[in-house]
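Risk register update: the risk of archive-format incompatibility is retired. Evidence:
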Amino acid sequence: MDDLIRAALLDMAKHSPDAATVRAGTNARMRQLRQRRAVLAVAGVAAVASATPLVVRDRPQAGPTSGSLLPPAFPDLPVGPGNVGVAIRHHPTWLPDGFVESARQAVLSAQPTYTAREWSAPGDHPESTVAPRISVSHQSAASPWHPRRSDRQGKKVTVNGADGLAWSDGDDVELEWPSADGGFLRVSLHAVRPGLATARRIAESVVADDVTIMECALAFGWLPPDLVGSAILARSTTDGSGRPSVSAWNQELMLTGGRLWIMCGTATDQWELDSRGRAATVRGLPGRVNPDGDELWVRLPDGRHLLASTQRGAVPFARLVKVMEHIRLGPLPNVAWIGSR
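Archived output:
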């Protein structure tokens, strides 16, 4: 689908009076599209929107690639003043070699309906692709993020004696099974071989966790009335370059369905905006707004970048500005876990 979108936009660029400008804008939008799609895929929005069922292909599955046990989990640092810490209560004790932690996410709630940790394989990956990725998540039965699959025709598997289901489609594999609290756990793989065998090995290693925290330093100070009460997903992640680094990280807030998206961190830079954007004053600082009026960017005095984005028409520009003006920023969160096993 990305290739089709790119081809259509580039065809328009060739017939534009200023093809170079349009092409630059196209590349910026494609980077944004891939970044959003990666977030939405992990959060389950893309999977819910797709009407195509995933089917496990009938072919022999080799054993999982070489891997190793993860070191014992140590308590995370205390949450900074004013920040929110959400417990992530499950983690794997085995992963394939070469994968390091690159993201944590959780619904902001006293009883979160969705939490997840993600590992990626560092390396040089084509800009048009998503790096090999592993996600282990826990959802309650009522989670709006990555809800239980509606197609129950996956391959039947067992995970430590519990009945589960697995699906596979190209580079993507999902395996889910019930958790002791009435919810369910899911292992999701992208571009990991062999997919199903590796997913099952990871699933069988998942244990309870009482020390891992997803710390969030962002909060909405104001939302449009029609968005008040929406489930908010918080995410801490590295910059997506394929080489996780504590020096290049973002924190994100996303409303259900991706209607409103906030990013803040050292990896959220001005290049995210279309080069045709115009200057604007944001939070009393020089910033930029893209031509469609659905993205705002500003660099904060402490060096962090702040970006607000909405689907076209979901939040009018004047309200997007007000959201941006009222974002509450806490002290820098703990991201020392990025790049570790």
